[in-house]
Each structure stands twice: as structure tokens, then as C-alpha cells.
Amino acid sequence: MQQETEADVRSDKADATMPRKLSGFISRMGRGHQALLVLLSVLLFAVGILPLEVQRRIVNDATQGASLNAILALVAAYLALVLSEGGIKLVLNVYRGWIGEVAIRWLRMVVIDAGERHAEGLTTVAEGIEMSIVLAEAEPVGGFVGTSITEPVLQAGVLLAVGSYMIYLQPLLALAVIAVFVPQAILVPVLQGLINQRVKTKITVMRHLSEEMVDHSSPKSPKHQAARVQRLFSTNMSIYKLKYSLNFLMNLMFQLGYAGIFALGGYYVITGKIEIGTVVAFIAGLNKVSDPWGALVDWYRDLRVTQVKYELIRDASALDQRPSSGGAN
């Protein structure tokens, strides 16, 4: 596999044309690998749903006077499922990391090779952009390739499986859980659009910083650099405010979901409509979906941001050879 990858890199150096869209770049990095990752993801969320049912049965058997051997057998089954889930997740994460690193290397080699082919006519502006891409911008874009398809498949699969299980156990309690996600589904795209605007500004300013670090000919360079550093600070702070405000709202929604389960579930237990094990399963279920939902939101954020970053790298991959405009901000 390693030899094939190195051959691909050498071949790509002869044709350093980046696909027009991020989806084309992901496809170019290997459809076969993505298919294997999807299979691992499906297996992972299929195995991941089973511990919830085992937990419910353990609690119910313990409260209904089942034998110790029966409970220990369920505990052993639970441990086996947890170990299986962890092992599959380990393989999946390492595999995704490898694919991401291959994509990062490809991007860097394409930019470096383009710089070598245009070395004679390369301007300081292009040198600065090349430095920025090779050192910083390629990593998040290439790293996204490993999770681009498997992450939504895995996390959406977990959400669907756990949600279906909850509806099967108690539809009204499941509605309390579903209500947690509705406001978030509305807020995330809106706030992410605002974050993307700031990310694009940040990358542009960082490139101008790199340009000035290569070209010191402008007498106003120190003044411009100080202004750019300040602009980076302000842009990053605005990103933090948007990002963590969204995190706060998401956490609040989940806590309201727990409150709904406690209130409605407690009422059903008191009135004898459900067993205590069902409430435990719902609490565990909401806890189990909080991570995949958060991961799905993070994936959406990464997708939108990576699309912006990829387009900027693609547009700069020709290494602009026009004269530098030192005063650009």
C-alpha cells in the first residue's frame, strides 16, 4: 500500500491539477478506501446499539429478582460488545488518519512541484502563498478527506439506530429526545455561515502576512504586518464567540432533554406504564447520541470550512506570478 501511494505521488507531480471541487479531490484520494471506511462505519454503529438493550435487561433483571448467573451472563455480553466496539473504532480511526495524511502529502507535493516548475518567474507573493499552503493550509483540508464520508455515515447511523430503539421502547419519551435536536438543526447552518466568512478572511490575511515575510521591500511593511496581526486577533475572537455560543446552546438543549426524560419517565414509572430500566435506557440513549450529534455538527462545520479552504488552495495552486501589491490587506 505504501509503495502504491508513493507511485501515485510521483504520478501526480506530472499532472499537478487540482480537482475543481472538494468532492472531486476526495474521490481522487481513493474511492476504494472510502468504501472500506463506510463498511467499518456501518459495522461500528450496528454493534454500538446493542449495549443499550443489554443495559436495560441487566437493570430490569436485577430489579425483578433474576438469578446472579443470568445477570453475570448479560454483563459478560455487555463487556464483549464494548470491546468489539472499541476495537472497530480503533481500526477505523487509524485508517482514516492514514488516508488523511496521504491527502495532506498530495496537496503539499502538488504545491511544491508547481513552485519548482515556475521557480524562475515566481514572485514573492506566490512564494508567500506557497509557504502558507505547505506549512499550514494543506493539513486541515487533507485531514478532512479521511472523515469526509465515514463520519456522517457513522454518526447519522448511530443517531438513527438509537432513535429507532427509543421510539420502539416509548414513543412519547422519544419525542422529548427529538425535541433536543430541532433548535440545533436550525442554528448550526446559520452560525456556521457566519464562521465561514471569518475563516476566509483569516486565511487571506495569513497569506498576506506570509507574502510580507518573504518580501521586505515595502517601507510600510512593519505597519501593515502589525495591522494584519491585529486583524487576525479580532477575527479569531469573533470565531470563538460564535463557536462557543453554539456549544452553549447545544449543551443547554441536551440538559433540557434530560429534564424531560426525568419528568416524563418518572411519571410513567410511578403510574406503572413503563419499567425503571426503560428510563435508564433513555438516559443512556440520550448520552449516547450526544457524542455522535456533536460529531455530526463538527463534521458539518469542517465540511463548510474545508470547502472554503480548498477553493482558496485550488485558486492559488497556479502560484500567481503577477507583481506583488505590497499594500494588500
Mean pLDDT: 78
* Major β-sheet profile: none
CATH homologous superfamily title: ABC transporter type 1, transmembrane domain
CATH domain topology:
ABC transporter transmembrane region fold
Provide the succession of SSEs. HHHHHHHHHH
Low-confidence stretches: 1-7, 9-15, 319-329
CATH C-level class? Mainly Alpha
Strand content: under 5%
Helix content: over 70%
Decide which structural class fits the backbone.
mainly alpha
The domain tally reads: 1
Number of helices: 10
Transmembrane segments: 35-54, 66-84, 167-191, 248-270
Keywords: ATP-binding, Membrane, Nucleotide-binding, Transmembrane, Transmembrane helix
Domain ABC transmembrane type-1: 226-303
Subcellular location: Cell membrane
What does this entry look like structurally?
The two termini are 44 Å apart. It is elongated and about 80 Å long. By secondary structure, the chain is mostly helical. The chain has one domain: ABC transporter transmembrane region fold, CATH 1.20.1560. Helix 3 packs parallel to helix 7, helix 7 packs antiparallel against helix 8 and helix 9 runs antiparallel to helix 10. The N terminus and C terminus are likely disordered. The longest helix is centred in the first third of the chain and has 50 residues. It is 85% helix and 0% strand.
